[in-house]
Write a structure and sequence with these properties.
This protein has about 400 residues and is α/β, with parallel strands linked by helices. It has helices spanning about 20-30, 35, 60-75, 90-100, 100-105, 135, 170-180, 190-205, 240-250, 260-265, 295-305, 315-320, 325-350, 355-360, 375-400, and strands at about 10-15, 45, 80-85, 110-115, 120-125, 140-145, 150-155, 160, 165-170, 210-220, 225-235, 280. The strands form two sheets. Strands 1, 2, 3, 4, 7, 8, 9, 10, 11 and 12 form a ten-stranded mixed beta sheet that branches. A two-stranded antiparallel sheet has the order 5-6. Strand 8 and strand 9 (about 165-170) form a beta hairpin. Helix 7 packs across helix 8 and helix 8 packs across helix 10.
């Protein structure tokens, strides 16, 4: 892979709520974004919505989005397009409102696109570079949004851990936008998939950049059930591998022990070895936060399917009409149990911090604190009722016959 402007260079700045918009623009300039993104091309802003409610460290922050838009507009970049992907467990329309993205997009007159609407065309794409796994998973062909081809892209991830990839960042942010709703088929080979997606991105985008928000950073079983920490950090880079490597290093992980970073580094798609990365801005050489990547009840079950004793049943459980069970399980775990029991309290605590107060300053100042999801709750209640009814029936049968 040939070099590209900004390869191996990452800007890292400490920031405050009072200066964050300017600091984001400064980090972009320090990382050489104008050299990386041709000004005569339209630019996609790939927003990350990991949860359709606000949870600190989870999704693109409104100041992250606003700071990037302000810098682009000040430097004469023309047509900007905010892009959202849909997942089976997250409603992106709710998410863009609850995370204040829609407010920022409307404020600056940016076009807003949901990639799974009927008018958004997905087309077959034949990669020029060698792929590791996608051609095997999708032998009938890989389909990508036509909108992406020939346009710059700026990824807007956050600094956080992930139950399947240890950390998630710029490379993982392409996962939702560039693959269709069958992307869960790739989870067993998620690291190789992320490398393949970067290969494709470098073919279809004239320029790629990332601005990563670490004002809140997420530790533990991410990308949702995390412990948020105020870290007051902004990262920016044209090198998707390097920015993920520096994020991993800050969190306390060895970047080259994370397969998607190591493989992308070995294939020349970016620089993943921190010793070869030029960090401009803050001196973070001795900084390590000691984060750990954990598991949830839901992710443990999925790993049994992807890598454990249930592997022979993967196609049946995840690629057949039975697949909705996994969506239901995730919804029940996160929205019926975890958020009401743990998440809601953490959100209230986060709102008392300086970054929580900044979040409250956006739009109408309201924050959605949902109760247990009605559908998930109904499923749980129905399941318990069925279990009780079954137990009673068995007990009556035993009394009658024995």
């Amino acid at each position: 892979m040939a070099d590209f402007p900004g390869k191996g260079k990452v800007a890292v700045l400490r920031t405050t709520p009072e200066t964050v918009l300017a600091d984001i623009g400064r980090a972009m300039l320090m990382a050489g974004y104008r050299e990386a993104l041709p000004r005569d091309r339209e630019t996609i802003l790939k927003i990350n919505i990991t949860w359709d409610t606000w949870y600190p460290g989870c999704s693109t922050t409104p100041w992250q989005l606003e700071g990037v838009i302000r810098r682009l507009k000040a430097d004469g970049y023309g047509h900007l397009i905010a892009a959202h992907n849909r997942t089976v467990v997250v409603d992106a329309y709710k998410g863009e409102r609850n995370n204040k993205h829609k407010y920022v997009v409307d404020k600056y007159g940016v076009e807003n696109v949901h990639l799974y609407e009927p008018h958004v065309e997905w087309i077959p794409y034949e990669p020029k570079g060698e792929l590791l796994v996608l051609h095997k998973i999708f032998p009938e062909g890989i389909r990508i949004p036509k909108l992406f081809i020939g346009r710059n892209i700026i990824h807007l991830p956050t600094v956080k851990t992930h139950v399947f990839t240890t950390i998630t960042g710029a490379m993982k942010n392409a996962f939702g936008g560039l693959l269709n709703e069958r992307r869960h088929w790739t989870h067993a080979v998620i690291h190789e998939t992320l490398v393949d997606l970067l290969t494709i991105q470098q073919e279809i985008h004239p320029g790629i950049f990332a601005v990563m928000d670490g004002t809140f950073a997420g530790d533990g079983p991410g990308p949702r059930a995390m412990r948020p920490h105020e870290k007051d950090i902004i990262l920016a880079s044209a090198d998707q591998v390097a920015i993920d490597a520096i994020s991993a290093k800050l969190q306390g992980f060895d970047p080259l022990s994370i397969p998607f970073i190591r493989i992308a580094h070995e294939r020349g798609l970016g620089i993943g070895d921190p010793r070869e990365i030029e960090v401009v801005g803050e001196d973070i050489s001795n900084e390590s936060w000691g984060f750990v990547a954990g598991d949830t009840f839901a992710s443990r079950g999925q790993k049994l399917i992807y890598h454990g004793p249930l592997k022979p049943l993967e196609n049946l459980l995840l690629r057949s009409p039975l697949v909705p069970w996994s969506y239901v399980a995730s919804n029940v775990y996160h929205n019926v149990y975890w958020y009401p029991v743990h998440g809601r309290r953490r959100v209230k605590e986060a709102l008392q911090t300086k970054w929580g107060q900044l979040f409250l300053s956006y739009d109408d100042g309201k924050v959605v604190l949902p109760g247990p999801d009605p559908l998930g709750t109904a499923i749980v209640v129905g399941g318990l009722a069925a279990l009780v009814a079954g137990t009673v029936s068995v007990a009556r049968w035993l009394r009658r016959d024995h």
